[in-house]
Amino acid sequence: MSLDKFFNPESVAIVGASRHEGKVGYEVLTNLIRAGYEGRIFPVNPNADTIEGLKCYATIESIGQTPDLVIIVVPAKIVPAVMKQCARVGVRSVIIVTAGFKEVGPEGGELAQQFTQIAKQAGIRVLGPNCLGVIVPANKLNASFGGDLPAEGSVGYISQSGALLSAILDMARANGIGFSKLVSIGNKADVNELDVMKVLGSDPDTKVIAGYLESIDHGDAFVKEAERISHNKPILLVKSGVTSAGARAVSSHTGSLAGTDAAYEALFERAGIIRCDSVKSQIGHIQAFDSQPLPKGLAIAVITNAGGAGIMAVDAIEQQCLNVARFSEETIDKLSANLPPAASWHNPIDVLCDAPPERFEFALDIVLDDPNVDVVLVLLTPQAMTQPIATAKAIVKITGRKNKKPVLAGFLGVGKVEEAIRILRDGKIPNYDSPQAAIMTIKAMTTYVKWCSRPKRVVKLFTVNRRKVEKIIKQHLALGTRQIGEAESREILQAYGFATPKSFNVTTADKAIDIAKQLGYPVVLKIWSPDIIHKSDVGGVAVGLNSPKEVMDAFDLMMYRIPKEMPAAEVLGVVVQEMCSGGREVILGMNRDKHCGPLMMFGMGGIMVEVLNDVSFYLAPLTAGEAKQMLLNTKTYQMLTGVRGEDGVDIDAIAEGLQRLSQLVTEFPQIQEIDINPYVVGPEGTTPIAVDARISLEKI
Ligand code: ADP
Ligand code: MG
Predict the structure, then answer these.
(1) How far is CA 392 from CA 360, 402, 407, 684, in A?
(2) 132, 431, 602, 657 - which has most CB atoms within 10 Å?
(3) Eight-state DSSP code of residue 642
(4) Residue 229: which of 199, 252, 190 has the closest Cα?
(5) Is residue 589 classed as helix, strand or coil in its secondary structure?
């Protein structure tokens, strides 16, 4: 159902409107009036005849017509009754500003369920509860208690926190940012970030989408939508709650290493979302995305009247893997002919401490023409001879004429540059309070440009034995078993094209010796128990056994020691396995994040994964390029390609393993976690072997 009436209603009723200053019901009403809203306003309050000169109604029903939008500010316990009234008169859009629902405990949760049920049955869309409301400056609609109507502009903002939104509004005002729509989604009883994202994505008045989110509800759908929108509009999000790794117990390496933040990070990367680490940096990014063209490349020219500021900028450029532009000969000739001899006409251009506005203007004019320059950063410190105001005016003048490349400013200081920064702001030049902050914004822009120009994602599909996996999974779920044992994990992997070591389960030492003979020495012995997850932790793995005697000793030791150490574990015998020597150990894994979806992991394998923590993540399904990138994102990669004369391993084979695993977890959403550790890889042309695997399921 359309959300249009939230943004463009012809009439608004405020249930709980109040005469008393300071009450939310008063603030919402007067905000609406003060903003100059042109539709009809119906205050609803049984204890008043008029409020602010408007006729007041006892109930929604007594209004005599159906308001397009109803804003509810009455106490939580009355909300279900008001929702019933809304349903009776055919209201379709309701904002619940009131707090005190699920965030206060079970009683509040119960109330929320009641009104949600009523709304659902009546086909009412609900924004909130516990939200600030909606603001649409172009429609003079301030259906919120967020203070004055902000300026009209092209930024659409979604906020999960109402209180933070009012701070954002204040910062935006100070930085000259205007909005198309602001939506506070609060507890998301109905309308959520995905709904608002869709509205902003197709809204012709919105050029930049920004938001503050604490959680994302339907990761899969959100990724798809955001990915589609990102091609046309940048999405800049602050996502908080980064350290809440989730309190659930995790048994897999992938699960314990991933945490929630890695999943969100991967989701954002897939969808082209630019993650901002603070509201302040978000405001900085928004300004540039809103007012500047996108850069065509990574080459930055820096113009400065302070050597130190220039050096800081260059450091930041290098740290962010951007380029310090190399000027063309023509640029150098012009600069050297016209700047004072003491100036530096190489990048960064030092126009010196006595630089008058004309010198800045001249340098900016020249570098904007240089085809080797993609972005310009102008830095100024207010020294004795500096004229910040005239310099700001000069920058605005030039960029008004030459507006094909982004120009950012860093006028450093406070009082002495205040007026100049205002001039820059009005002239649509974003200003940053440090060279680093400006470079971070440029980095965000170049990252976005790179994302937009990435090749179309093509996920390769391998020929696999899907039936077989289906059967194993079904059997397990029917029995209520969540962990898949070693032997069947191997079968699943084989069905998806993985090679596994020859393995046999035995119950006696004699049988173990028989099998070892068949396999050929050396062999590996492992404890066979459905209850032991990390076998080597309990002495349950013996590698490199070279003779019947060694096999016998290892068998006896395991069968004697392990049941003593773990009396609760059911020990069935041992697995005799072929030894895979000479390769390197990596880990391939997946952990299904409940918000973001199947999170693939790659890293250095073996029993030290957690200690080394050299892993990378990406959301499945993976393309070949993404699988390769996962390898490149780790330090392990360099070791795998061969260092100090050691031979490298077959990188493409690992990438293929990741893609096959990604296909498996995409085709079987019941798979909750999977670890292949170690995945033993050898030189180019050899087949990697999935030596050990653990798979766990969840009923869906
Ligand atoms: P767990 O992870 O339960 O401790 P693994 O089967 O992964 O048990 O074995 C632990 C380590 O022993 C592996 O990381 C690997 O170094 C070595 N290992 C196990 N099986 C083999 C094998 N078949 N060939 C070579 N090395 C092995
Ligand atoms: Mg293992």
Answers:
(1) 9, 15, 12, 59
(2) 602
(3) -
(4) 199
(5) strand
Give the residue whose CA is nearest to atom 18 of ligand 1. Answer: 543
Which ligand 1 atom is at minimum distance from the Cα of 606?
A: 14
The helix or strand, by DSSP H or E, that contains position 466, with its residue range, turns out to be helix 466-479
Ligand 1 site, residue 577, Cβ cutoff 6 A: yes
pLDDT tens for each residue of 286-344 = 999 999 999 999 999 999 999 999 999 999 999 999 999 999 999 999 999 999 999 99
Say how far apart CA 31 and CA 585 lie, in whole Å.
63
- Please give the number of the atom of ligand 1 that sits closest to the Cα of 578: 23
User: What angle do the packed helices 219-230 and 435-452 form, to 10 degrees?
Assistant: 100
> Ligand 1 pocket check: which of 674, 692, 695 to mutate, most ligand atoms within 8 Å of Cβ?
692
Cβ of 542 below 6 Å from ligand 1 = no
Q: Is the pLDDT of residue 8 over 90?
A: yes
Average pLDDT of every residue of the chain: 93
Q: Is 576 touching ligand 1 by the criterion CB < 6 Å?
A: no
By residue count, the chain amounts to 700
CA gap 687, 681 in Å, rounded? 7
pLDDT band at 258 (very low <50, low <70, confident <90, very high): low
Looking at residue 166, its pLDDT comes to: 87
pLDDT for 388-416, tens place per residue? Answer: 999 999 999 999 999 999 999 999 999 99
Rounded to an integer, what distance in angstroms lies between the CA atom of residue 169 and that of residue 166?
5
- Stated as kind and residue range, the H or E segment containing 70 is strand 69-72
Question: Does the pLDDT value for residue 259 go beyond 70?
Answer: no
Question: Which residues, other chains included, contact 252 with Cβ-Cβ below 8 Å and sequence gap of 6+?
Answer: 589, 591, 673, 674, 675, 694, 696
Task: Provide the pLDDT for residue 607.
Answer: 67
Q: Please compute the mean of the pLDDT values over residues 76-98 and round it to a whole number.
A: 97
Q: Single out the residue of 201, 169, 203, 204 nearest to residue 184, CA to CA.
A: 169
State the pLDDT at residue 247: 35
Which residue is closest in CA terms to ligand 1's atom 8?
A: 535
* CB-based contact 495:464 (threshold 8 Å): yes
Q: Is the CB of 32 under 6 A from ligand 1?
A: no
Residue 501 Cβ contacting ligand 1 at under 6 Å: yes
Per-residue burial over 349-359, b if 16 or more Cβ lie within 10 Å, else e, is: bbbbeebbbeb
- In the reported structure, the alpha carbon of residue 44 is separated from the centroid of ligand 1 by a whole-number distance in angstroms of 71
Separation of CA 533 and ligand 2 centre (Å): 9
Q: Is 691 in the pocket of ligand 1 (CB under 6 A)?
A: yes
489 pocket-lining for ligand 1 (C-beta < 6 Å) = no
Ligand 1 atom closest to the Cα of residue 678 is: 14
Question: What is the C-alpha to C-alpha distance for residues 38 and 146, in angstroms, rounded to an integer?
Answer: 19
541 ligand 1 Cβ < 6 A: yes
Return the pLDDT at 239.
87
Expressed in angstroms, the distance from the first to the final Cα of the chain is: 28
Ligand index nearest the alpha carbon of residue 608: 1
Residue 670: exposed, middle, or buried by beta-carbon count in 10 A (0-12, 13-18, 19+)?
buried
Is 370 near ligand 1, meaning CB less than 6 Å away? no
Give me the residues near ligand 2 (ion), CB cutoff below 5 Å: 677, 692
Which ligand has its closest atom nearest to the C-alpha of 584?
Answer: 1
Identify the residue whose C-alpha is closest to ligand 1 atom 6.
692
> Ligand 1: which atom is nearest the Cα of residue 537?
4
Q: How far apart are CA 536 and CA 539, in angstroms?
A: 5
- The lowest-confidence range among 169-178, 643-652, 668-677 is 643-652
Pocket test for ligand 1, best of 256, 587, 691, 694 (most atoms within 8 A of CB): 691
Taking the C-alpha atoms of residue 53 and residue 678, their distance in angstroms, rounded to an integer, is 75
